[in-house]
Automatic annotation (TrEMBL):
Lineage of the organism: Bacteria, Pseudomonadati, Verrucomicrobiota, Opitutia, Puniceicoccales
UniProt-listed InterPro entries: DUF6784 (IPR046711), DUF6785 (IPR046712)
The DUF6785 domain, residue ranges: 335-695
This protein's UniProt keywords: Membrane, Transmembrane, Transmembrane helix
Name the record gives this protein: Uncharacterized protein
Transmembrane residue ranges: 12-35, 47-69, 81-98, 346-367, 408-432, 452-469, 474-491, 511-529, 550-567, 573-591, 628-647, 668-688, 743-765, 777-795, 815-836
Domain DUF6784, residue spans: 743-836
Organism the protein comes from: Puniceicoccus vermicola
Length: 850
């Protein structure tokens, strides 16, 4: 008998189709509800709620079909794979990637932050090719020099000698310049597109300027003497760590090429008045693909498009006259998106995310046996999915699981639905009583507490119903950890430390705590790792219930770092720095996976707020260069702040559930890979097509599109300090930087609690409570989650005291499974009603979490 036949098939043709449909429907719902309606943020939950809408609909249709025809559309193993394709892909479809990447990747170019442009790869944002790249600076048929000029070989980039143009004038009124003549774009040849936005910039090094000296960049249409002023300035900047040789990039983002051009345009870079101007690396790039994310694209029929002049066809979406054709299918699949401009950013960012998730998948394979089989982690977040699907040993003659026949569940469903609907109804009608529990605590405490009690006690059904599945002592640890963090505000107030910017250094605490906890877990698991290594090099056949062997897992981890090095070389940043950053990201994934497996996590925003701080700890710009630091700050905005690291825990969950349901291990692997691809590709298709169809500036969820220059404040400070140190103007700083205390407090606190927990089995304070105390999850994320955790702890404690553990298992948990399903349904009803109200022109809708 074939060994594979002992396992149930799950990744089949029908489950593949169902998974793709479910991910596509989830992505559409996420973007419609979150981005278009702004009815709530349903995609940010640990159990992606729009995905659950789709999944529950599939379960309901399957039940109807089974009742009528006694045929299963999808088996339980297939349903499990469909669900986890949703849960793995979902975080990337929202704040874990797509709802943040456009805003953060466009911030540097769109805000004209040219000081960072040469440290920011063009692969990270959708820009056109540099139309001046192959022109050079030497005179030719399309390059013309006027006035006084010469060529000189200088080091305009660190360690890179290149020939640059030197323009030099001696007297006022003299003008020297270089002109580039560029043809207009035709259908099959590159060129300038009249009326479309461009970014023009150039590296300059001005010197010996006098009062009337200026450098300029201008654009002319055809042979006209009239020009568009792109740049006219006399600013001379200090050398920087990005350009230590004194060059500075100057330019303008988003100016339109002349609409009246008929054959060509001319770009002129020049010096006016006395002085010397070194000119290097001129650039002219179309930013049409980027700008249309914000403005939307115009659709035109194929016949109308053919009637347009050649130079007026740029940036339009052509709708085939016959949609029932190959071109019609291509039009529908393209989704308004200019893929030729987006393939590099998707490959750059999506490829990096895929590398991380392949690394965390390898870690999940290595750690599953220890955490699940040996340490008996309870996987709290799997309780509701398995209740919805049905356990592996339930009778096969029933499609629906036993929970749907549980009266306690229906009681909880009824109570939860009434509560949630009353909250919604009271928003629209003040005569309806509002059962919401939301109490600001600040007014109950005096000013001597500082900002300690500037929090709100809020209870939300969707979070209470998940939190009751978490063990009592862990819930209590979460609360204690949160209030320990809040008491730092009191300490800062009485000690005066709150006058220091950034106090109480939550970001630094998170980095220190995650690092210390990960290192200790690795140390305490050293015996297990020896067993893993021994098995990996053994000639014995690997266990067949893992998706791949330990040997393969270790090889894949090596491949992850090799792929990271290749990726770093492609985007042009420090390979060593990317490898160091990948180590920290996998460390976060390792801890996040353990948190979800042991404790459960109801929402995102539980990881370090800024992973780039780790790179600064290792030496920052001095050790890895400015390009790496700019990249890590950009990447941290969507990788570590929000929900991306919900995915590693979901990977571990499906590995274990796959074993429990007897699923073929390779099918679990295929599901994980499908979820990764679905999050990147399907999530991108849905979000970008929505953006290009409507225009991000007209969509209500402005957060996904607004520039984020404030996120680079720490980066700006680091660049300024490095530049000051480079020119020798750095003032001597005495003592320890205040933020260092944040790293130390986080690391020492996590270390002490982890050691105590390891030495004393009955030690109640779980270190994860301390680690999460300073995160956005507990304090302000999801409307202050600590209130829901407190309510869940009290409920579970009361039931344990009155009825014991059996009552918790048979009554409390089914009841709150019903509350959870009710809150999911209520959010769907709210989205439907909000859509109706928007169609009627009503702008104010209920958008709170339930």
């Amino acid at each position: 008998m074939n060994a594979a036949s002992k396992f149930a098939p799950a990744f089949t043709a029908r489950s593949l189709v169902a998974s793709i449909f479910a991910m596509l429907a989830s992505a559409i719902l996420i973007n419609y509800v979150h981005v278009v309606l702004v009815a709530s943020s349903p995609g940010e939950h640990a159990l992606v709620i729009p995905g659950l809408w789709v999944f529950l609909a599939m379960v309901g249709l399957g039940a109807i079909f089974f009742t009528l025809f006694k045929v299963r559309i999808l088996s339980r193993p297939e349903l499990l794979c469909v669900l986890y394709a949703i849960l793995i892909s979902g975080p990337m479809m929202t704040q874990g990637f797509w709802h943040r990447i456009v805003a953060i990747s466009s911030t540097i170019p769109r805000t004209g932050d040219f000081a960072k442009m040469d440290a920011y790869s063009d692969n990270f944002w959708p820009s056109g090719a540099n139309l001046l790249a192959d022109k050079g600076l030497q005179p030719s048929e399309s390059v013309f020099l006027s006035g006084n000029s010469r060529f000189e070989t200088v080091d305009h980039s660190a360690g890179e000698q290149q020939e640059v143009l030197v323009l030099e004038n001696e007297a006022s009124g003299e003008v020297s310049s270089i002109r580039f003549t560029l043809p207009l774009k035709e259908e099959k040849s590159p060129g300038v597109m009249p009326g479309t936005p461009y970014l023009s910039s150039v590296l300059l090094r001005p010197s010996e300027f006098q009062g009337d000296s200026r450098y300029f960049v201008r654009m002319y249409a055809d042979d006209s003497d009239d020009f568009r002023e792109i740049l006219y300035s006399r600013i001379i900047r200090k050398p920087s760590v990005i350009h230590p040789q004194g060059f500075q990039r100057e330019g303008l983002y988003g100016f339109e090429a002349p609409r009246n051009a008929t054959e060509s345009v001319t770009l002129e870079i020049g010096l006016e008045g006395p002085g010397v101007l070194y000119v290097a690396d001129p650039q002219l790039q179309s930013v049409l693909a980027m700008e249309q994310v914000f403005s939307g694209r115009t659709e035109i029929s194929e016949s109308d498009y053919a009637a347009l002049p050649e130079h007026h066809r740029h940036g339009l979406v052509v709708r085939p006259d016959n949609l029932f054709s190959l071109s019609g299918l291509r039009y529908l699949v393209s989704g308004y998106i200019p893929w030729d401009a987006w393939w590099r950013p998707i490959l750059a960012w999506g490829g990096f995310l895929a590398i991380i998730l392949l690394g965390t998948l390898s870690i999940a394979v290595i750690m599953r046996r220890k955490w699940i089989d040996s340490e008996r982690f309870s996987l709290p977040l799997t309780r509701i999915p398995t209740l919805l699907i049905g356990s592996a040993d339930e009778p096969k003659n029933r499609f629906l699981s036993g929970i749907w026949r549980n009266s306690t569940m229906w009681l909880g469903f009824s109570a939860g639905l009434i509560w949630c609907l009353l909250k919604m109804a009271s928003f629209y009608n003040s005569a309806v009583p509002d059962p919401s529990i939301s109490v600001p605590l600040g007014s109950y405490f005096g000013p001597e507490w500082g900002e300690t009690w500037n929090i709100t006690f809020t209870v939300m059904a969707v979070f209470v119903s998940l939190a009751v599945f978490i063990e009592l002592n862990i819930l209590f640890s979460f609360l204690v950890g949160f209030f320990l963090f809040r008491l730092l505000y009191w300490y800062g107030y009485v000690s005066g430390m709150d006058a220091s910017p950034g106090f109480p250094y939550a970001q630094e605490q998170q980095v220190g705590a995650y690092l210390a906890y990960a290192l200790l877990i690795l140390w305490f698991s050293r015996t297990y790792f020896r067993e893993v290594l021994k098995e990996a090099v053994s000639s014995k056949p690997p266990k067949r219930d893992e998706i791949f062997s330990y040997r393969t897992a270790l090889i894949l981890l090596v491949a992850v770092f090799a792929a990271s090095a290749v990726w770093a070389n492609w985007v042009g940043i420090s390979i060593l720095g990317v490898l160091a950053f990948m180590v920290f990201l996998l460390t976060i994934g390792f801890v996040a996976m353990r948190i979800r497996a042991e404790c459960g996590i109801p929402f995102g925003y539980f990881t370090p707020n800024n992973a780039a701080l780790f790179i600064l700890l290792l030496g920052g710009i001095g050790a890895f260069g400015p390009g790496l630091v700019v990249f890590t700050f950009t990447a941290s905005f969507f990788i570590t702040v929000a929900g991306f690291f919900l995915i590693p825990g979901a990977q571990l969950e499906i590995l274990e559930l796959g074993r429990r349901y007897g699923i073929r291990p390779k099918h679990i692997l295929y599901t994980c890979l499908l979820g990764i691809l679905g999050g990147i590709i399907i999530g991108g298709w849905s979000f970008l097509s929505t953006s290009y169809a409507f225009g991000g500036d007209s969509l209500r969820f402005n957060w996904a599109f607004e520039d984020k220059p404030w996120y680079f404040s720490n980066l700006n400070q680091e660049l300024a300090q490095a530049g000051t140190a480079m020119v020798g103007d750095e003032a001597q700083q005495s003592g320890i930087a205040p933020s260092t205390y944040g790293y130390l407090y986080g690391a020492i606190g996590a270390t002490i609690l982890t050691v105590l927990r390891q030495l004393f089995a009955g030690f109640w304070f779980h270190p994860l409570g301390f680690i999460l105390g300073s995160t956005h999850l507990m304090g302000s994320g999801a409307g202050s989650l600590w209130g829901s955790i407190l309510a869940a702890w009290l409920l579970r404690l009361i039931v344990v005291k009155l009825g014991g553990a059996e009552t918790v298992r048979t009554k409390l948990l089914p009841f709150f499974a019903g509350v959870f399903i009710a809150s999911v349904l209520a959010l769907l009803l709210n989205a439907i009603y909000a859509a109706y109200l928007r169609s009627q022109g009503v702008e104010i809708i209920f958008s709170d979490l339930l």
